[in-house]
Amino acid sequence: MTALKNRAAAAVDLAPPPDLPTFAAFAVSRPSEPLPVVESGEEDLLSSSMVPARREAFSRGRAAAHAALRAIHFDRGPILSGSGREPLWPDGATGAISHAAGFGVALVAPAEDTDGVGVDLEELRNVPELWDHVPRPEERSWLGNLEATEREAAMLALFSAKESVFKAFFPRIGSYFGFERASLAPTASGFVGRLADGLDRDYPSHRTFAITSVRSGDLVLTAVILPKTAASGEVSRSGYRDGPALPTSESELEG
Ligand SMILES: CC(C)(COP(=O)(O)OP(=O)(O)OC[C@H]1O[C@@H](n2cnc3c(N)ncnc32)[C@H](O)[C@@H]1OP(=O)(O)O)[C@@H](O)C(=O)NCCC(=O)NCCS
User: What pLDDT score was predicted for residue 242?
Assistant: First the structure.
């Protein structure tokens, strides 16, 4: 188990999200490591009907989450799940969990420093059905302009980025929202995204946010740490970069 605080990360098999702000922490539980024992209280979330792979994924996700919380001094008790399956973080902290290919990963931050955190890990594979559900028309257009050899990996990165966006915004919005409600455009470090109007009052469609994307072999990891909206409604910019404006029109993203 390794907790990676900021960029002090040593070289690892699974690269951490790049350019993490200093207040955030990322951790990973690897399939090569002994299976972690879940904390007291968390075992109630494991049912006997769960297949072993799901039990292992849950345990590795929770282990990564505790390691990341320790790195920011917020590891206090079990991490239970809410009615939308979202992790319930200790008071004062927020974060997200993902698991794939035997890895569990978590990204956390003090709640006072961010509006929300998302992370998602995917194993690169061909998933033709994603084309029917994930891309918006403008996303389909930039995907279509890529070399055929890059297109499937870009599709999976887009899917992962939208899952990260979902995890970051779900605790704020409080209900499910679909892939068509966020528009993402590629950047050098991942994506710049924005939400449909009406979904989150503090994130109208003209307010963009960055999603990083990093490849480690056959794994793609995406992450989002939303800038904090100050009480005045102004966005605190310390430690963040805003992405470029998106090509989509406001009307295309209306909720
Ligand atoms: C919830 C969802 C994002 C989980 O992603 P996944 O690829 O299935 O699985 P991952 O391993 O990456 O993540 C699972 C973890 O996500 C977290 N999670 C589940 N539901 C969540 C929610 N509503 N909000 C935040 N986090 C959630 C949990 O920690 C879960 O792990 P756990 O059950 O062991 O605690 C996905 O199942 C889903 O419903 N996606 C559709 C919604 C969406 O992405 N909309 C696009 C918006 S642009």
Answer: 46
Test site for ligand 1: of 167, 170, 183, 248, most ligand atoms within 8 A of the Cβ: 167
Residue range(s) in the chain whose domain bears CATH number 3.90.470.20: 123-255
Domain at 123-255: CATH code? 3.90.470.20
Residue 97, classified by CB atoms within 10 Å of its CB into exposed (0-12), middle (13-18) or buried (19+), is buried
Residues with CB under 6 A from ligand 1: 58, 61, 81, 84-87, 96-99, 120, 162-163, 165-167, 170, 177-179, 181-182
Residue 46, pLDDT score = 85
Rounded Cα distance between 131 and 25, Å, is 33
List beta partners, residue 87.
Answer: 81
Question: From ligand 1's centre to the CA of 243, what distance in Å?
Answer: 25
Averaged pLDDT of the chain: 89
Q: How confident is the model at residue 248 (pLDDT cuts 50, 70, 90)?
A: low
Strand pairing report for 219-226 and 103-110: unpaired
State residue 13's pLDDT score. 81
pLDDT digits (tens, 9 = 90+) for 145-196: 999 999 999 999 999 999 999 999 999 999 999 999 999 999 999 999 999 9
Amino acid at 98: S
Atom of ligand 1 nearest to the CA of 99: 11
Report the percentage of the chain scoring pLDDT > 70.
Answer: 86
The CATH classification number of 1-113 equals 3.90.470
Q: In whole angstroms, what separates CA 57 from the centre of its chain?
A: 16
pLDDT exceeds cutoff 90 at 244: no
